[in-house]
Protein backbone atom coordinates (compact mmCIF):
# COMPACT_ATOMS: atom_id res chain seq x y z
CA UNK A 1 0.00 0.00 0.00
CA UNK A 2 1.36 3.41 -0.97
CA UNK A 3 2.23 6.03 1.63
CA UNK A 4 -0.70 8.48 1.72
CA UNK A 5 -0.08 12.13 0.88
CA UNK A 6 -1.43 14.98 3.01
CA UNK A 7 -2.02 17.12 -0.09
CA UNK A 8 -0.50 20.26 1.39
CA UNK A 9 0.08 22.68 -1.52
CA UNK A 10 3.69 23.67 -2.12
CA UNK A 11 4.49 27.39 -2.08
CA UNK A 12 5.52 28.88 -5.40
CA UNK A 13 8.36 30.97 -4.01
CA UNK A 14 10.63 29.86 -1.17
CA UNK A 15 13.02 32.45 0.32
CA UNK A 16 16.57 31.14 0.56
CA UNK A 17 17.81 32.08 4.02
CA UNK A 18 20.11 29.18 4.95
CA UNK A 19 22.29 27.02 2.69
CA UNK A 20 24.21 23.83 3.47
CA UNK A 21 27.37 23.42 1.41
CA UNK A 22 29.01 19.98 1.28
CA UNK A 23 30.90 19.20 -1.91
CA UNK A 24 33.80 17.08 -3.12
CA UNK A 25 34.20 18.97 -6.39
CA UNK A 26 34.91 22.53 -5.30
CA UNK A 27 34.89 24.03 -8.80
CA UNK A 28 33.31 27.49 -8.60
CA UNK A 29 32.38 26.97 -4.95
CA UNK A 30 33.96 30.10 -3.45
CA UNK A 31 32.47 32.48 -6.00
CA UNK A 32 29.08 30.84 -5.48
CA UNK A 33 29.37 31.02 -1.69
CA UNK A 34 30.38 34.68 -1.87
CA UNK A 35 27.34 35.47 -3.99
CA UNK A 36 25.05 33.64 -1.57
CA UNK A 37 26.55 35.46 1.40
CA UNK A 38 26.17 38.79 -0.39
CA UNK A 39 22.48 37.93 -0.87
CA UNK A 40 22.12 37.49 2.91
CA UNK A 41 22.13 33.68 2.92
CA UNK A 42 23.55 32.03 6.05
CA UNK A 43 26.19 29.43 5.15
CA UNK A 44 26.48 26.08 6.90
CA UNK A 45 29.12 23.62 5.82
CA UNK A 46 31.04 20.42 6.52
CA UNK A 47 34.68 19.36 6.86
CA UNK A 48 36.94 20.42 4.01
CA UNK A 49 34.22 22.50 2.41
CA UNK A 50 33.81 24.56 5.59
CA UNK A 51 37.59 25.12 5.79
CA UNK A 52 37.73 26.32 2.21
CA UNK A 53 34.77 28.67 2.64
CA UNK A 54 36.17 30.06 5.89
CA UNK A 55 39.57 30.39 4.25
CA UNK A 56 38.00 32.72 1.71
CA UNK A 57 36.99 35.03 4.55
CA UNK A 58 33.31 34.08 4.64
CA UNK A 59 31.28 33.52 7.78
CA UNK A 60 30.29 29.85 7.91
CA UNK A 61 28.82 27.60 10.62
CA UNK A 62 30.12 24.07 10.89
CA UNK A 63 27.37 21.48 10.63
CA UNK A 64 28.38 20.16 14.04
CA UNK A 65 26.89 23.35 15.51
CA UNK A 66 23.50 22.23 14.17
CA UNK A 67 23.82 18.62 15.25
CA UNK A 68 25.66 19.15 18.53
CA UNK A 69 27.76 16.19 17.45
CA UNK A 70 31.26 16.14 15.94
CA UNK A 71 32.25 14.44 12.69
CA UNK A 72 33.33 10.89 13.50
CA UNK A 73 34.74 7.81 11.80
CA UNK A 74 37.04 9.68 9.41
CA UNK A 75 34.16 11.88 8.30
CA UNK A 76 31.89 8.97 7.39
CA UNK A 77 29.31 10.29 9.85
CA UNK A 78 28.71 14.03 9.83
CA UNK A 79 25.36 14.90 8.19
CA UNK A 80 23.47 11.69 9.01
CA UNK A 81 21.63 13.32 11.91
CA UNK A 82 18.01 14.39 12.64
CA UNK A 83 19.05 18.03 12.90
CA UNK A 84 20.18 17.89 9.27
CA UNK A 85 17.61 15.55 7.76
CA UNK A 86 14.80 17.05 9.80
CA UNK A 87 15.83 20.43 8.41
CA UNK A 88 15.65 19.01 4.89
CA UNK A 89 12.57 16.79 5.09
CA UNK A 90 10.29 18.87 7.30
CA UNK A 91 7.06 19.95 5.58
CA UNK A 92 6.91 23.45 6.91
CA UNK A 93 3.19 23.99 6.34
CA UNK A 94 2.36 20.77 8.17
CA UNK A 95 1.52 21.57 11.83
CA UNK A 96 2.93 18.29 13.15
CA UNK A 97 6.21 18.72 11.24
CA UNK A 98 6.51 22.34 12.32
CA UNK A 99 5.97 21.37 15.95
CA UNK A 100 8.60 18.61 15.75
CA UNK A 101 11.11 21.04 14.25
CA UNK A 102 10.35 23.57 17.01
CA UNK A 103 10.46 21.03 19.85
CA UNK A 104 13.79 19.59 18.69
CA UNK A 105 15.36 22.94 17.79
CA UNK A 106 15.68 22.00 14.11
CA UNK A 107 16.42 25.01 11.94
CA UNK A 108 15.17 24.71 8.33
CA UNK A 109 17.67 24.53 5.47
CA UNK A 110 16.42 26.06 2.22
CA UNK A 111 19.26 25.29 -0.17
CA UNK A 112 21.63 22.32 -0.32
CA UNK A 113 24.75 22.31 -2.48
CA UNK A 114 26.20 18.82 -2.65
CA UNK A 115 28.21 16.70 -5.05
CA UNK A 116 29.58 13.27 -4.47
CA UNK A 117 32.80 11.39 -3.80
CA UNK A 118 34.37 10.59 -7.19
CA UNK A 119 33.44 6.90 -7.25
CA UNK A 120 33.38 6.68 -11.05
CA UNK A 121 36.82 8.28 -11.43
CA UNK A 122 38.39 6.15 -8.70
CA UNK A 123 36.96 3.00 -10.26
CA UNK A 124 38.36 3.91 -13.68
CA UNK A 125 41.77 4.67 -12.15
CA UNK A 126 42.34 1.00 -11.36
CA UNK A 127 42.40 1.55 -7.60
CA UNK A 128 42.12 -1.40 -5.25
CA UNK A 129 38.90 -2.77 -3.81
CA UNK A 130 39.18 -0.95 -0.47
CA UNK A 131 39.86 2.42 -2.10
CA UNK A 132 36.91 2.04 -4.42
CA UNK A 133 34.58 1.13 -1.55
CA UNK A 134 35.85 4.08 0.50
CA UNK A 135 34.78 6.37 -2.33
CA UNK A 136 31.15 5.26 -2.15
CA UNK A 137 29.42 8.36 -0.81
CA UNK A 138 26.65 7.80 1.74
CA UNK A 139 25.89 11.12 3.41
CA UNK A 140 25.88 13.01 0.12
CA UNK A 141 23.25 10.88 -1.64
CA UNK A 142 21.15 10.83 1.53
CA UNK A 143 21.10 14.65 1.70
CA UNK A 144 20.52 14.98 -2.03
CA UNK A 145 17.59 12.58 -2.03
CA UNK A 146 16.06 14.13 1.08
CA UNK A 147 16.30 17.62 -0.39
CA UNK A 148 14.98 16.50 -3.76
CA UNK A 149 12.02 14.72 -2.20
CA UNK A 150 11.14 17.84 -0.22
CA UNK A 151 11.60 20.18 -3.20
CA UNK A 152 8.37 21.84 -2.10
CA UNK A 153 10.57 23.70 0.39
CA UNK A 154 14.20 22.90 -0.43
CA UNK A 155 16.35 23.55 -3.50
CA UNK A 156 19.08 21.01 -4.25
CA UNK A 157 22.10 21.84 -6.44
CA UNK A 158 24.28 18.89 -7.50
CA UNK A 159 26.19 20.37 -10.44
CA UNK A 160 28.61 23.33 -10.35
CA UNK A 161 27.40 24.13 -13.87
CA UNK A 162 24.08 25.20 -12.28
CA UNK A 163 25.55 27.79 -9.91
CA UNK A 164 25.07 30.64 -12.35
CA UNK A 165 21.43 29.77 -13.08
CA UNK A 166 20.68 29.52 -9.34
CA UNK A 167 22.14 32.95 -8.70
CA UNK A 168 20.25 34.38 -11.65
CA UNK A 169 16.98 32.88 -10.40
CA UNK A 170 17.60 34.27 -6.91
CA UNK A 171 18.17 37.71 -8.35
CA UNK A 172 15.08 37.52 -10.55
CA UNK A 173 12.89 36.43 -7.62
CA UNK A 174 14.37 38.79 -5.00
CA UNK A 175 16.08 36.09 -2.95
CA UNK A 176 13.60 33.26 -3.56
CA UNK A 177 13.46 30.25 -5.88
CA UNK A 178 10.31 29.21 -7.72
CA UNK A 179 8.60 25.83 -7.43
CA UNK A 180 9.18 25.09 -11.10
CA UNK A 181 12.90 25.77 -10.69
CA UNK A 182 13.09 23.62 -7.56
CA UNK A 183 11.35 20.77 -9.39
CA UNK A 184 13.92 20.87 -12.18
CA UNK A 185 16.77 20.84 -9.69
CA UNK A 186 15.16 17.89 -7.89
CA UNK A 187 14.75 15.95 -11.13
CA UNK A 188 18.43 16.46 -11.93
CA UNK A 189 19.39 15.45 -8.40
CA UNK A 190 17.53 12.14 -8.55
CA UNK A 191 19.05 11.44 -11.97
CA UNK A 192 22.52 12.07 -10.53
CA UNK A 193 22.08 9.69 -7.60
CA UNK A 194 20.55 7.09 -9.91
CA UNK A 195 23.58 7.29 -12.21
CA UNK A 196 25.91 7.13 -9.22
CA UNK A 197 24.20 4.05 -7.83
CA UNK A 198 24.19 2.47 -11.30
CA UNK A 199 27.98 2.85 -11.41
CA UNK A 200 28.34 1.28 -7.97
CA UNK A 201 26.02 -1.65 -8.65
CA UNK A 202 27.68 -2.24 -12.01
CA UNK A 203 31.09 -2.31 -10.38
CA UNK A 204 29.94 -4.83 -7.80
CA UNK A 205 28.48 -7.05 -10.54
CA UNK A 206 31.74 -6.92 -12.49
CA UNK A 207 33.94 -7.45 -9.43
CA UNK A 208 31.91 -10.37 -8.15
CA UNK A 209 31.44 -11.74 -11.68
CA UNK A 210 27.66 -11.67 -11.39
CA UNK A 211 26.72 -12.01 -15.04
CA UNK A 212 23.02 -11.34 -14.59
CA UNK A 213 22.27 -9.29 -11.44
CA UNK A 214 18.65 -9.27 -10.34
CA UNK A 215 18.51 -5.50 -10.74
CA UNK A 216 20.44 -3.90 -13.60
CA UNK A 217 20.98 -0.17 -13.95
CA UNK A 218 22.74 1.95 -16.57
CA UNK A 219 23.57 5.62 -16.29
CA UNK A 220 25.16 8.43 -18.22
CA UNK A 221 25.73 12.17 -18.33
CA UNK A 222 24.37 14.32 -21.14
CA UNK A 223 27.17 15.34 -23.47
CA UNK A 224 25.13 17.03 -26.17
CA UNK A 225 21.59 17.58 -27.33
CA UNK A 226 21.36 16.80 -31.02
CA UNK A 227 19.37 18.47 -33.72
CA UNK A 228 17.50 15.20 -34.23
CA UNK A 229 17.88 11.43 -34.07
CA UNK A 230 17.94 8.90 -36.88
CA UNK A 231 15.29 10.99 -38.61
CA UNK A 232 14.38 14.70 -38.35
CA UNK A 233 11.14 14.01 -36.45
CA UNK A 234 13.01 12.18 -33.65
CA UNK A 235 14.65 13.92 -30.71
CA UNK A 236 18.07 12.71 -29.54
CA UNK A 237 20.82 13.27 -26.99
CA UNK A 238 24.27 11.77 -26.52
CA UNK A 239 25.07 10.48 -23.03
CA UNK A 240 28.50 9.46 -21.76
CA UNK A 241 28.77 6.38 -19.58
CA UNK A 242 32.25 7.23 -18.30
CA UNK A 243 33.80 4.14 -19.90
CA UNK A 244 37.24 5.17 -21.18
CA UNK A 245 37.30 2.70 -24.10
CA UNK A 246 38.87 4.63 -27.01
CA UNK A 247 36.20 5.66 -29.48
CA UNK A 248 33.78 8.35 -30.49
CA UNK A 249 32.63 9.04 -26.91
CA UNK A 250 36.16 9.71 -25.63
CA UNK A 251 37.64 11.29 -28.76
CA UNK A 252 38.72 14.91 -29.20
CA UNK A 253 37.05 16.56 -32.16
CA UNK A 254 39.73 18.67 -33.82
CA UNK A 255 37.45 20.30 -36.34
CA UNK A 256 34.16 20.16 -38.22
CA UNK A 257 30.52 20.68 -37.33
CA UNK A 258 28.72 18.86 -34.54
CA UNK A 259 28.33 15.12 -34.94
CA UNK A 260 24.82 13.89 -35.63
CA UNK A 261 23.11 10.85 -34.10
CA UNK A 262 23.85 8.80 -37.23
CA UNK A 263 27.44 10.09 -37.37
CA UNK A 264 28.08 8.86 -33.83
CA UNK A 265 26.49 5.49 -34.47
CA UNK A 266 28.45 4.96 -37.69
CA UNK A 267 31.74 6.29 -36.31
CA UNK A 268 31.51 3.91 -33.37
CA UNK A 269 30.95 1.01 -35.76
CA UNK A 270 33.90 2.09 -37.91
CA UNK A 271 36.37 2.43 -35.06
CA UNK A 272 35.34 -0.82 -33.38
CA UNK A 273 35.95 -2.58 -36.70
CA UNK A 274 39.36 -1.04 -37.39
CA UNK A 275 40.37 -1.89 -33.82
CA UNK A 276 40.44 -5.54 -34.93
CA UNK A 277 43.59 -4.82 -36.97
CA UNK A 278 46.94 -4.69 -35.17
CA UNK A 279 48.69 -1.44 -36.15
CA UNK A 280 52.12 -3.03 -35.59
CA UNK A 281 51.37 -5.52 -38.37
CA UNK A 282 50.02 -3.20 -41.02
CA UNK A 283 48.01 -0.06 -41.63
CA UNK A 284 44.27 -0.61 -41.90
CA UNK A 285 41.33 1.46 -43.12
CA UNK A 286 37.61 0.86 -42.66
CA UNK A 287 34.99 2.84 -44.58
CA UNK A 288 31.53 2.63 -43.03
CA UNK A 289 28.08 3.56 -44.30
CA UNK A 290 24.94 3.09 -42.21
CA UNK A 291 26.93 1.11 -39.60
CA UNK A 292 28.07 -1.45 -42.21
CA UNK A 293 31.50 -1.55 -43.83
CA UNK A 294 31.60 -0.82 -47.54
CA UNK A 295 35.37 -1.31 -47.73
CA UNK A 296 38.12 -2.55 -45.41
CA UNK A 297 41.76 -3.05 -46.30
CA UNK A 298 45.27 -3.46 -44.95
CA UNK A 299 48.31 -1.94 -46.62
CA UNK A 300 51.90 -0.91 -46.13
CA UNK A 301 50.65 2.67 -45.63
CA UNK A 302 47.33 4.27 -44.78
CA UNK A 303 47.21 5.75 -48.28
CA UNK A 304 47.59 2.29 -49.84
CA UNK A 305 45.02 0.77 -47.49
CA UNK A 306 42.56 3.57 -48.23
CA UNK A 307 42.86 3.09 -51.98
CA UNK A 308 42.13 -0.63 -51.64
CA UNK A 309 39.23 -0.06 -49.25
CA UNK A 310 37.69 2.59 -51.49
CA UNK A 311 37.92 0.31 -54.54
CA UNK A 312 35.64 -2.26 -52.87
CA UNK A 313 32.56 -0.02 -53.16
CA UNK A 314 33.36 3.55 -54.25
CA UNK A 315 29.69 4.42 -54.70
CA UNK A 316 28.69 3.55 -51.13
CA UNK A 317 31.82 5.20 -49.72
CA UNK A 318 30.48 8.63 -50.71
CA UNK A 319 29.43 10.40 -47.51
CA UNK A 320 30.85 7.64 -45.34
CA UNK A 321 32.98 7.36 -42.22
CA UNK A 322 36.70 6.57 -42.49
CA UNK A 323 38.46 4.90 -39.55
CA UNK A 324 42.12 3.93 -39.32
CA UNK A 325 44.36 2.06 -36.91
CA UNK A 326 47.35 4.41 -37.15
CA UNK A 327 48.09 8.11 -36.90
CA UNK A 328 46.57 9.96 -39.85
CA UNK A 329 49.35 11.29 -42.08
CA UNK A 330 49.35 13.89 -44.83
CA UNK A 331 49.47 11.37 -47.69
CA UNK A 332 46.38 9.56 -46.47
CA UNK A 333 44.57 12.82 -45.67
CA UNK A 334 45.14 14.09 -49.23
CA UNK A 335 43.52 10.94 -50.64
CA UNK A 336 40.59 10.86 -48.25
CA UNK A 337 39.50 14.46 -48.92
CA UNK A 338 39.15 13.67 -52.64
CA UNK A 339 35.92 11.81 -51.78
CA UNK A 340 33.12 13.42 -49.77
CA UNK A 341 33.50 12.05 -46.25
CA UNK A 342 31.50 12.85 -43.12
CA UNK A 343 33.93 11.82 -40.37
CA UNK A 344 37.52 10.66 -40.01
CA UNK A 345 38.51 8.92 -36.78
CA UNK A 346 42.07 7.91 -35.92
CA UNK A 347 44.27 7.35 -32.86
CA UNK A 348 46.02 10.62 -33.73
CA UNK A 349 46.83 12.95 -36.63
CA UNK A 350 49.96 14.79 -37.73
CA UNK A 351 49.83 18.57 -37.90
CA UNK A 352 50.15 18.36 -41.70
CA UNK A 353 47.21 15.97 -41.94
CA UNK A 354 45.07 18.13 -39.65
CA UNK A 355 45.82 21.16 -41.83
CA UNK A 356 44.70 19.27 -44.95
CA UNK A 357 41.46 18.21 -43.27
CA UNK A 358 40.90 21.77 -42.01
CA UNK A 359 40.40 22.91 -45.60
CA UNK A 360 37.13 20.94 -45.55
CA UNK A 361 35.30 22.91 -42.87
CA UNK A 362 32.40 20.46 -42.44
CA UNK A 363 34.57 17.33 -42.32
CA UNK A 364 34.90 16.15 -38.73
CA UNK A 365 38.26 14.88 -37.53
CA UNK A 366 38.34 12.87 -34.30
CA UNK A 367 41.42 11.61 -32.49
CA UNK A 368 41.14 9.04 -29.74
CA UNK A 369 44.62 8.50 -28.33
CA UNK A 370 44.37 4.74 -28.85
CA UNK A 371 42.44 1.82 -30.30
CA UNK A 372 39.63 -0.18 -28.68
CA UNK A 373 40.75 -3.60 -27.48
CA UNK A 374 38.70 -6.20 -29.39
CA UNK A 375 39.39 -8.75 -26.65
CA UNK A 376 38.20 -6.56 -23.76
CA UNK A 377 35.14 -7.64 -21.82
CA UNK A 378 32.18 -5.29 -21.66
CA UNK A 379 28.43 -5.02 -21.65
CA UNK A 380 26.08 -3.82 -24.37
CA UNK A 381 22.39 -3.09 -24.05
CA UNK A 382 19.53 -2.67 -26.51
CA UNK A 383 16.11 -1.33 -25.68
CA UNK A 384 12.96 -3.26 -26.58
CA UNK A 385 9.37 -2.47 -25.69
CA UNK A 386 9.13 -2.76 -21.91
CA UNK A 387 12.71 -3.78 -21.28
CA UNK A 388 16.38 -4.05 -22.09
CA UNK A 389 18.36 -6.82 -23.74
CA UNK A 390 21.76 -6.97 -22.07
CA UNK A 391 24.67 -9.09 -23.20
CA UNK A 392 28.45 -9.29 -22.99
CA UNK A 393 30.41 -7.64 -25.79
CA UNK A 394 31.38 -9.92 -28.67
CA UNK A 395 35.08 -10.09 -27.83
CA UNK A 396 35.91 -13.27 -29.75
CA UNK A 397 38.95 -12.68 -31.98
CA UNK A 398 39.71 -15.01 -34.87
CA UNK A 399 43.43 -15.10 -34.03
CA UNK A 400 42.53 -16.75 -30.71
CA UNK A 401 40.18 -19.38 -32.17
CA UNK A 402 41.03 -23.00 -32.87
CA UNK A 403 40.43 -23.16 -36.60
CA UNK A 404 39.52 -26.54 -38.05
CA UNK A 405 40.12 -27.49 -41.67
CA UNK A 406 37.15 -29.68 -42.67
CA UNK A 407 37.82 -30.18 -46.40
CA UNK A 408 40.26 -32.37 -48.28
CA UNK A 409 42.24 -29.33 -49.31
CA UNK A 410 43.72 -27.06 -46.65
CA UNK A 411 44.00 -23.31 -47.28
CA UNK A 412 47.33 -21.96 -48.45
CA UNK A 413 49.09 -19.54 -46.08
CA UNK A 414 47.91 -16.62 -48.27
CA UNK A 415 44.34 -17.92 -48.23
CA UNK A 416 44.46 -18.40 -44.45
CA UNK A 417 45.61 -14.81 -43.95
CA UNK A 418 42.70 -13.56 -46.07
CA UNK A 419 40.26 -15.91 -44.34
CA UNK A 420 41.16 -14.46 -40.95
CA UNK A 421 40.89 -10.94 -42.39
CA UNK A 422 37.43 -11.75 -43.79
CA UNK A 423 36.21 -13.19 -40.48
CA UNK A 424 37.40 -10.08 -38.59
CA UNK A 425 35.31 -7.95 -40.92
CA UNK A 426 32.28 -10.28 -40.89
CA UNK A 427 32.09 -9.81 -37.11
CA UNK A 428 31.17 -6.17 -37.78
CA UNK A 429 28.73 -6.66 -40.68
CA UNK A 430 24.99 -6.85 -40.03
CA UNK A 431 23.61 -10.37 -40.37
CA UNK A 432 23.26 -12.19 -42.63
CA UNK A 433 26.84 -11.27 -43.49
CA UNK A 434 29.00 -12.42 -46.39
CA UNK A 435 32.47 -10.92 -46.90
CA UNK A 436 34.75 -11.57 -49.88
CA UNK A 437 38.44 -10.77 -49.39
CA UNK A 438 41.47 -10.86 -51.65
CA UNK A 439 45.03 -9.80 -50.85
CA UNK A 440 44.13 -8.10 -47.57
CA UNK A 441 41.14 -6.15 -48.84
CA UNK A 442 37.42 -6.65 -49.00
CA UNK A 443 36.24 -7.05 -52.58
CA UNK A 444 32.54 -7.63 -51.90
CA UNK A 445 30.28 -7.29 -48.84
CA UNK A 446 26.69 -8.47 -48.46
CA UNK A 447 24.92 -7.28 -45.32
CA UNK A 448 21.62 -7.43 -43.50
CA UNK A 449 19.72 -9.79 -45.77
CA UNK A 450 17.08 -12.27 -44.66
CA UNK A 451 18.75 -14.96 -46.80
CA UNK A 452 22.44 -15.84 -46.71
CA UNK A 453 22.23 -16.67 -50.41
CA UNK A 454 21.01 -13.14 -51.11
CA UNK A 455 23.89 -11.67 -49.09
CA UNK A 456 26.33 -13.74 -51.14
CA UNK A 457 24.77 -12.65 -54.42
CA UNK A 458 24.66 -8.97 -53.40
CA UNK A 459 28.32 -9.08 -52.38
CA UNK A 460 29.23 -10.64 -55.74
CA UNK A 461 27.15 -8.07 -57.60
CA UNK A 462 28.87 -5.22 -55.77
CA UNK A 463 32.24 -6.73 -56.69
CA UNK A 464 31.16 -6.82 -60.34
CA UNK A 465 30.06 -3.17 -60.19
CA UNK A 466 33.36 -2.16 -58.57
CA UNK A 467 35.32 -4.01 -61.27
CA UNK A 468 33.40 -2.22 -64.01
CA UNK A 469 34.03 1.15 -62.32
CA UNK A 470 37.75 0.35 -62.14
CA UNK A 471 37.89 -0.92 -65.72
CA UNK A 472 38.87 -4.45 -64.69
CA UNK A 473 38.24 -7.43 -66.92
CA UNK A 474 36.74 -9.50 -64.12
CA UNK A 475 35.60 -8.92 -60.53
CA UNK A 476 38.12 -9.34 -57.74
CA UNK A 477 36.00 -12.08 -56.22
CA UNK A 478 37.78 -14.36 -58.71
CA UNK A 479 40.42 -16.04 -56.62
CA UNK A 480 39.12 -14.50 -53.38
CA UNK A 481 38.11 -16.09 -50.09
CA UNK A 482 34.77 -15.65 -48.33
CA UNK A 483 33.62 -15.42 -44.71
CA UNK A 484 30.14 -16.06 -43.38
CA UNK A 485 29.17 -14.77 -39.95
CA UNK A 486 27.10 -17.92 -39.27
CA UNK A 487 26.93 -21.39 -40.74
CA UNK A 488 25.64 -22.10 -44.22
CA UNK A 489 22.33 -23.89 -43.55
CA UNK A 490 22.36 -25.33 -47.07
CA UNK A 491 24.97 -25.80 -49.75
CA UNK A 492 23.30 -23.15 -51.97
CA UNK A 493 24.96 -20.25 -50.13
CA UNK A 494 28.36 -21.81 -50.63
CA UNK A 495 27.62 -22.59 -54.26
CA UNK A 496 26.74 -18.95 -54.85
CA UNK A 497 30.13 -17.96 -53.45
CA UNK A 498 31.88 -20.58 -55.56
CA UNK A 499 30.11 -19.17 -58.59
CA UNK A 500 31.60 -15.77 -57.69
CA UNK A 501 35.06 -17.32 -57.85
CA UNK A 502 36.14 -18.07 -54.26
CA UNK A 503 38.86 -20.58 -53.49
CA UNK A 504 38.45 -20.84 -49.70
CA UNK A 505 35.73 -20.37 -47.08
CA UNK A 506 35.66 -19.58 -43.36
CA UNK A 507 32.47 -20.13 -41.39
CA UNK A 508 31.43 -21.17 -37.88
CA UNK A 509 30.04 -24.57 -38.83
CA UNK A 510 27.41 -26.30 -36.74
CA UNK A 511 24.65 -26.80 -39.28
CA UNK A 512 22.71 -30.07 -39.48
CA UNK A 513 23.81 -30.10 -43.12
CA UNK A 514 27.50 -29.40 -42.58
CA UNK A 515 28.39 -32.63 -44.38
CA UNK A 516 26.47 -31.50 -47.48
CA UNK A 517 28.28 -28.15 -47.45
CA UNK A 518 31.68 -29.81 -46.96
CA UNK A 519 30.93 -32.23 -49.80
CA UNK A 520 30.06 -29.32 -52.10
CA UNK A 521 33.34 -27.62 -51.19
CA UNK A 522 35.34 -30.80 -51.84
CA UNK A 523 33.59 -31.31 -55.16
CA UNK A 524 34.82 -27.89 -56.33
CA UNK A 525 38.27 -28.12 -54.77
CA UNK A 526 37.46 -25.41 -52.20
CA UNK A 527 39.26 -25.21 -48.85
CA UNK A 528 36.99 -24.68 -45.85
CA UNK A 529 37.75 -23.76 -42.26
CA UNK A 530 35.35 -23.92 -39.30
CA UNK A 531 35.79 -21.44 -36.44
CA UNK A 532 33.25 -22.83 -33.99
CA UNK A 533 32.23 -19.23 -33.17
CA UNK A 534 29.33 -17.29 -34.66
CA UNK A 535 29.23 -13.52 -35.12
CA UNK A 536 25.56 -12.58 -35.53
CA UNK A 537 25.10 -8.80 -35.48
CA UNK A 538 21.56 -7.45 -35.53
What is the element layout, followed by pairings?
Layout: E1 13-15, E2 18-22, H1 29-38, E3 42-45, H2 47-55, E4 61-62, H3 63-67, H4 82-89, H5 95-103, E5 111-114, H6 119-124, H7 129-134, H8 139-149, E6 155-157, H9 163-172, E7 176-178, H10 179-207, E8 221-225, E9 237-240, E10 252-255, H11 261-274, E11 283-289, E12 292-299, H12 302-312, H13 314-317, E13 320-324, H14 330-336, E14 341-346, H15 351-358, E15 364-367, E16 379-384, E17 387-392, E18 404-405, H16 413-426, E19 434-437, E20 442-446, H17 452-470, E21 481-484, H18 491-500, E22 504-507, H19 514-523, E23 527-530
Parallel strand pairs: 2-3, 2-5, 3-4, 5-6, 13-14, 14-15, 21-22, 22-23
Antiparallel strand pairs: 1-7, 8-9, 10-15, 11-12, 11-13, 16-17, 18-23, 19-20, 19-21
Helix pairs in contact: 4-8, 8-10, 12-14, 14-15, 17-18, 18-19
